[in-house]
Design a protein that fits this description.
Elements: H1 3-25, H2 28-44, H3 54-77, H4 96-105, H5 109-120, H6 125-132, H7 136-154, H8 157-160
Length: about 160
Protein backbone atom coordinates (compact mmCIF):
# COMPACT_ATOMS: atom_id res chain seq x y z
CA UNK A 1 0.00 0.00 0.00
CA UNK A 2 1.30 3.45 -0.83
CA UNK A 3 1.05 6.64 1.20
CA UNK A 4 -1.47 7.98 -1.31
CA UNK A 5 -3.63 4.87 -0.87
CA UNK A 6 -3.33 5.26 2.90
CA UNK A 7 -4.59 8.84 2.68
CA UNK A 8 -7.50 7.71 0.50
CA UNK A 9 -8.33 5.01 3.07
CA UNK A 10 -8.39 7.60 5.85
CA UNK A 11 -10.79 9.75 3.85
CA UNK A 12 -12.97 6.82 2.82
CA UNK A 13 -13.26 4.88 6.08
CA UNK A 14 -12.60 7.19 9.05
CA UNK A 15 -16.25 8.26 9.44
CA UNK A 16 -17.62 4.72 9.16
CA UNK A 17 -15.07 3.41 11.67
CA UNK A 18 -15.83 6.20 14.10
CA UNK A 19 -19.57 5.63 13.80
CA UNK A 20 -19.11 1.90 14.42
CA UNK A 21 -16.96 2.41 17.53
CA UNK A 22 -19.00 5.27 19.03
CA UNK A 23 -22.24 3.28 18.65
CA UNK A 24 -20.64 0.47 20.64
CA UNK A 25 -18.88 2.52 23.31
CA UNK A 26 -21.07 5.63 23.65
CA UNK A 27 -17.88 7.58 24.43
CA UNK A 28 -16.85 10.06 21.74
CA UNK A 29 -13.39 10.79 23.13
CA UNK A 30 -12.40 7.15 23.58
CA UNK A 31 -13.86 6.32 20.16
CA UNK A 32 -11.64 8.99 18.60
CA UNK A 33 -8.62 7.53 20.37
CA UNK A 34 -9.46 4.04 19.14
CA UNK A 35 -9.78 5.27 15.55
CA UNK A 36 -6.47 7.09 15.84
CA UNK A 37 -4.82 3.92 17.18
CA UNK A 38 -6.37 1.95 14.33
CA UNK A 39 -4.93 4.22 11.66
CA UNK A 40 -1.58 4.20 13.47
CA UNK A 41 -1.58 0.38 13.30
CA UNK A 42 -2.30 0.62 9.56
CA UNK A 43 0.56 3.09 9.14
CA UNK A 44 2.97 0.70 10.88
CA UNK A 45 1.86 -2.17 8.64
CA UNK A 46 1.57 -0.02 5.51
CA UNK A 47 3.70 -2.34 3.35
CA UNK A 48 1.96 -5.50 4.60
CA UNK A 49 -1.65 -4.46 3.91
CA UNK A 50 -2.93 -4.39 0.35
CA UNK A 51 -5.18 -1.56 -0.77
CA UNK A 52 -7.93 -4.02 -1.66
CA UNK A 53 -8.03 -5.41 1.92
CA UNK A 54 -7.69 -2.12 3.79
CA UNK A 55 -11.38 -1.84 4.75
CA UNK A 56 -11.44 -5.25 6.41
CA UNK A 57 -8.10 -4.58 8.10
CA UNK A 58 -9.32 -1.26 9.53
CA UNK A 59 -12.57 -2.68 10.90
CA UNK A 60 -10.76 -5.70 12.37
CA UNK A 61 -8.15 -3.50 14.03
CA UNK A 62 -10.81 -1.10 15.37
CA UNK A 63 -12.90 -4.01 16.65
CA UNK A 64 -9.96 -5.62 18.49
CA UNK A 65 -8.79 -2.30 19.93
CA UNK A 66 -12.34 -1.58 21.12
CA UNK A 67 -12.65 -5.03 22.74
CA UNK A 68 -9.31 -4.52 24.50
CA UNK A 69 -10.57 -1.19 25.86
CA UNK A 70 -13.85 -2.77 27.06
CA UNK A 71 -12.00 -5.58 28.82
CA UNK A 72 -9.64 -3.10 30.45
CA UNK A 73 -12.57 -1.01 31.70
CA UNK A 74 -14.33 -4.08 33.11
CA UNK A 75 -11.18 -5.04 34.99
CA UNK A 76 -11.07 -1.62 36.62
CA UNK A 77 -14.77 -1.64 37.43
CA UNK A 78 -14.32 -4.63 39.73
CA UNK A 79 -16.10 -7.92 39.86
CA UNK A 80 -18.61 -7.08 42.59
CA UNK A 81 -19.91 -3.93 40.86
CA UNK A 82 -22.97 -4.95 38.85
CA UNK A 83 -25.19 -2.90 36.62
CA UNK A 84 -28.84 -3.75 36.54
CA UNK A 85 -30.12 -4.00 33.00
CA UNK A 86 -33.69 -3.86 31.82
CA UNK A 87 -34.82 -7.20 30.46
CA UNK A 88 -37.94 -6.11 28.63
CA UNK A 89 -39.59 -3.00 27.39
CA UNK A 90 -42.98 -2.28 28.93
CA UNK A 91 -43.45 1.45 28.41
CA UNK A 92 -44.78 3.12 25.29
CA UNK A 93 -42.39 5.11 23.11
CA UNK A 94 -42.91 7.01 19.94
CA UNK A 95 -39.21 7.11 19.07
CA UNK A 96 -38.28 3.68 17.72
CA UNK A 97 -34.68 4.77 17.14
CA UNK A 98 -34.21 5.63 20.81
CA UNK A 99 -35.78 2.36 21.88
CA UNK A 100 -33.68 0.32 19.47
CA UNK A 101 -30.51 2.13 20.55
CA UNK A 102 -31.23 1.36 24.20
CA UNK A 103 -31.92 -2.28 23.35
CA UNK A 104 -28.66 -2.61 21.38
CA UNK A 105 -26.71 -1.13 24.30
CA UNK A 106 -28.04 -3.91 26.56
CA UNK A 107 -26.58 -6.64 24.33
CA UNK A 108 -23.37 -8.44 25.35
CA UNK A 109 -20.31 -6.87 23.67
CA UNK A 110 -19.73 -9.67 21.13
CA UNK A 111 -23.37 -9.70 20.04
CA UNK A 112 -23.49 -5.92 19.86
CA UNK A 113 -20.37 -5.79 17.69
CA UNK A 114 -21.55 -8.41 15.18
CA UNK A 115 -25.02 -6.86 14.91
CA UNK A 116 -23.47 -3.43 14.31
CA UNK A 117 -21.15 -4.84 11.64
CA UNK A 118 -23.99 -6.72 9.94
CA UNK A 119 -26.96 -4.37 10.20
CA UNK A 120 -25.31 -0.94 10.41
CA UNK A 121 -22.20 -1.44 8.28
CA UNK A 122 -23.51 -4.11 5.88
CA UNK A 123 -20.75 -6.69 6.19
CA UNK A 124 -21.32 -10.30 5.16
CA UNK A 125 -21.06 -13.14 7.67
CA UNK A 126 -17.67 -14.14 6.24
CA UNK A 127 -16.33 -10.59 6.51
CA UNK A 128 -17.54 -10.33 10.11
CA UNK A 129 -15.87 -13.65 10.82
CA UNK A 130 -12.60 -12.31 9.41
CA UNK A 131 -12.89 -9.06 11.39
CA UNK A 132 -13.80 -10.59 14.75
CA UNK A 133 -11.89 -13.85 14.58
CA UNK A 134 -15.07 -15.81 15.31
CA UNK A 135 -16.19 -18.71 13.13
CA UNK A 136 -18.84 -17.92 10.56
CA UNK A 137 -21.35 -20.16 12.36
CA UNK A 138 -20.65 -18.40 15.68
CA UNK A 139 -21.26 -15.03 13.99
CA UNK A 140 -24.63 -16.30 12.78
CA UNK A 141 -25.50 -17.57 16.27
CA UNK A 142 -24.57 -14.23 17.88
CA UNK A 143 -26.62 -12.29 15.34
CA UNK A 144 -29.59 -14.61 15.80
CA UNK A 145 -29.45 -14.34 19.60
CA UNK A 146 -29.10 -10.57 19.41
CA UNK A 147 -32.09 -10.25 17.10
CA UNK A 148 -34.20 -12.49 19.34
CA UNK A 149 -33.29 -10.31 22.32
CA UNK A 150 -34.06 -7.12 20.38
CA UNK A 151 -37.42 -8.51 19.31
CA UNK A 152 -38.21 -9.46 22.91
CA UNK A 153 -37.02 -6.10 24.26
CA UNK A 154 -38.96 -3.99 21.79
CA UNK A 155 -42.10 -6.08 22.06
CA UNK A 156 -45.02 -5.63 19.73
CA UNK A 157 -45.25 -2.87 17.16
CA UNK A 158 -48.45 -1.64 18.81
CA UNK A 159 -46.50 -0.96 22.01
CA UNK A 160 -43.94 1.12 20.14
CA UNK A 161 -46.36 3.21 18.10
Amino acid sequence: MTVEEYNKAVEAYADNLYRFVVKNLKDEHMSGDIIQDTFEKLWVKLEDVSASKVRSYLFAAAYHTMIDYIRKEKRYAGLDHTIEQEQAHDMQYSDLGELLDRAVQNLPEDQKAVVMLRDYEGYSYREISDITGLSESQVKVYIYRARVYLKYYIGSVEQVI
